[in-house]
Amino acid sequence: MKRSSRLAVAAGSLLLLAVYVLPLWRIELLAPQYPEGLGLHIWVNQITGIKPNDLTNINGLNHYIGMRAIDPDTFPELRFMPKLLAAAVVAGLLVALIGRRPLLYLWAVLFTAGALAGLGDFWKWGYDYGHQLDPHAAIKVPGMSYQPPVIGSKQLLNFHATSWPGLGGWIIVASLACVLVVAALEWRRARSPQAAPAGTVRPAVARV
Fold it and tell me: Which of 8, 53, 103, 167 is the most exposed place for a label (fewest CB within 10 A)?
């Protein structure tokens, strides 16, 4: 790996440390009775309301339609994600330190797989909460489910729900993009004719 590639991987890995103090995801709900909106911040180790009472208010609304309360203590992901993040930072720094292309390619694949697995887990959480409803709820709408969108907007009864990465989520996207770009450039460089190992004798071109 070139020195510039190793520095880029190291910088991208250290950038992940900001995720410890910035929210990964942001979910907002707008409705006529809540013109100021309600919202959630999902962090690497907790779930909080965007405003002080938002989580309590959302749980109160969810109770009427039969959804379970959102209790951060019941999410095992919030306990092991900080450790996975630390492992990701260390792994990226080791790749930059050792500077071997195969390790870079492996790290790019694992980083991508981890990011996709995180999105898949988020989708599953939303699906479970939106579909597993209490049959004795005060408000029941036949055929209605309340799964929030993973990315984008969705109408849920009279609530307009939006879901987008928070600053921490965008930092992960930037770090992953950095690793993938470096891996692609190194792959291209390794396959370039100029990348022959030192001491390799190039065949002479016969002149006619």
Answer: 53
